[in-house]
Amino acid sequence: MTIMKPLQRLPHMSCAQLTTRFAFLSLVLFLLLTHDELSYSNNFPYYSKGNNGNDGLILPQHDPHLASLLKVSAFDKSLYDTFHHPYNNYSCQPRKIHLSQGTNVEPDSGVVNMTLSFSLNRTQCGGSQQTPSSSFPTASSSNLHMVVVYGRGLFPDGRIEQRAADSEHSVHFDFTSPVTGELYQSDWIQHVTLPNLIGGSHLYWYRISIVQQQSRHLPQLHLPPSFRPVFLRGSLYKVGETPTYRFRTPPLYHQPTSLALVGDLGQTENSTKTMNRILQAASLDQVTQIYDNMPPPVTQLLIAGDLSYADGVPERWDSWLELMQPLLQTLPLSSIPGNHEIECDNITHNVFVPYETQFRNPNRIADPDMEAPSDTYIDTLWHRMCNTPSQFFGHYNFGNAFYQYQHGMVHIIALNSYTSILPGSIQHNWLAQVALPSVNRDATPWLLVMFHCPLYTTFWGHNDEINPTLMKSSIEDLLKKHQVNMVISGHDHAYLRTHPLYHDKVDSTGQSPMYWTLGAGGNREQHTKGYIHETPEEWVAKRDNDEYGYGHFFAKNKTHAHLHWMRDGTSSSEIVRDAVWIENYYFVHNSTN
Questions:
Q1: Which end of the chain offers a freer environment for a tag, N or C, measured as fewer CB atoms within 10 Å?
Q2: Mean pLDDT for the chain?
Q3: Which residue ranges make up each domain of the chain?
């Protein structure tokens, strides 16, 4: 993957090499000069409809499920830019755009890498559904070029960088649905690194362009009758382009930090209401309408498992990523797998494949280490299915399964509830010997740990499952020893905040982790059906199984943070349903010794 840097003295090159270099520079220059400017609202992160904003939303014909979801989405329909003219006319349009933090902010230089992910449809961009998934249309075979143009500040201000997303950096997967029995071949999924950005909540813009060279390979593109190519120069023309989007880089270690946290999201109207609230929290003007004591805009979204509720139907991953694109194209995401990400392939029994391939979480330790469960083990599961079992012992390490990263004043450790974390396991060794000992509380005073299955629950339904039972016995002492501030989970479709808690008892000294369950994102399974005990347990600080929403964690400084439970209400007065200031017991404890 080549980064185009400012022109400088060229080394000795042949005529052919010079021609190739200047041809690519000309391509990038014309992408910049021929882009139709859009008018933007100053209220980041909202955007205009584009040149013909009054044309209305053109629902995608390729996905009736997504089209029906868009009709009831709580998102402003103008945020679905790519379904409007002129973008809906492109034959090879980048879709399912989402961002993630790539690396930690470097302490000395303050630079950080981000990852931009997007997909290209295999049929519309030069292949066919019958083409083997390994046959990506490379530049040599179809002359397809992918270019991400980005810069700092408000477009078009800021220093511009260019990156060519080459075909060898594409990933894809084949999946035989356990529900329909049909073979699904994914889009070509791109994960592009945007390197050396300036940390500190700085504003950046970006745009993705897809360019085709006119040649004998042109018929490979499946062009609609209405397609009118935008010619750049000679044989170059655009076959795909996005509007210009914006995002903020992670805050520096000493800066106040705002995180949005949610679990069990799904893709319903309630899901989009939750995500719309989070989108508002990423906008400075929207934040001032909700809070009296205003935190900075949210710069990171954490999803504690059960993202799309695809449940073995991979087309639902496509619709979820498109449905959530207005948020994910501007707010970086990190996630962990839940039971709805297990998704056994009907033939190979490979698990977690769509989840692992679609995303790039921060600071990947290594490529994923995954094994398919045996037929014998599958026969022991509920209904003999390993699609979305709540109790499951799999083998999925590294990759997107577990990792750690720093975001502003917060150190986040993400774990996998569905691979072994017993003492001596790969995940337990990494947690105990690498992740927890590496935390620098001077740089990141707040320590959060996130995994799907809660260790403590007041709700009926998942209260006697084996995965959290074994996890609790394996790591609760570690969480206490390393003075973890909060443990974030989903799984229960409800809201729970505990008092500081250790071995089933309230820690009156406040020197134990709090547990925060945020599984009421809005999925189609609705809320939990009730409580284990009608009277709340003594360690319950707040519980609710009637409302949907998300959690907001605001680290004001190294000693104090504010937690909000943000309901999907219709007015500002109805939104905040739970709010509390907490002390960082790491510093309180150490200051008394």
A1: C
A2: 83
A3: 3-7+15-37+90-247, 251-591
Residue 108's pLDDT band, with cuts at 50, 70 and 90, is very high
Spatial contact of 540 and 496, defined as CB atoms under 8 Å apart: yes
pLDDT at 43: 30
Q: Got the DSSP string for 419-434?
A: B--STTSHHHHHIIII
Give pLDDT, residue 391: 87
Q: How far is CA 40 from CA 36, 49, 86, 160, in A?
A: 13, 9, 16, 19
Distances (CA, A) of 313 to 65, 265, 317, 495: 12, 16, 8, 28
What fold, for 3-7+15-37+90-247?
Immunoglobulin-like (2.60.40)
CA 390 vs. chain centroid, Å, equals 22
- pLDDT for the residue numbered 569: 72
pLDDT tens-digit series, residues 187-219: 999 999 999 999 999 999 999 999 887 654 444
Helix axis angle, 64-72 relative to 269-281, nearest 10°? 60
3-state secondary structure of 404: strand
Alpha helices in 7-47 (DSSP H): 15-33
Nearest Cα neighbor of 385 from 419, 417, 339, 338 is 339
Give the E-state strand segments of 391-461 in sequence order.
395-397, 403-407, 410-414, 446-450
Report pLDDT digits (tens) over 282-302.
Answer: 985 544 444 555 688 999 999
Task: Quickly list DSSP for 182-223.
Answer: -EEEPPEEEEEEEEEEETTT-EEEEEEEEEEE-STTGGGS--
User: Which of 293, 292, 296, 317 is closest to 307 using CA atoms?
Assistant: 317
The Cα–Cα gap between 184 and 164 comes to 28
pLDDT of residue 386: 83
- pLDDT at res. 132: 39
Q: Are strands 395-397 and 446-450 parallel, antiparallel or unpaired?
A: unpaired
Tokens of 486: 């909060």
Q: Smallest Cα–Cα separation from 323: which of 260, 249, 387, 273?
A: 273
Burial label, 275 (beta-carbon count in 10 A; 0-12, 13-18, 19+): buried
CATH fold for domain 251-591: Purple Acid Phosphatase; chain A, domain 2 (3.60.21)
Q: pTM of this prediction?
A: 0.86
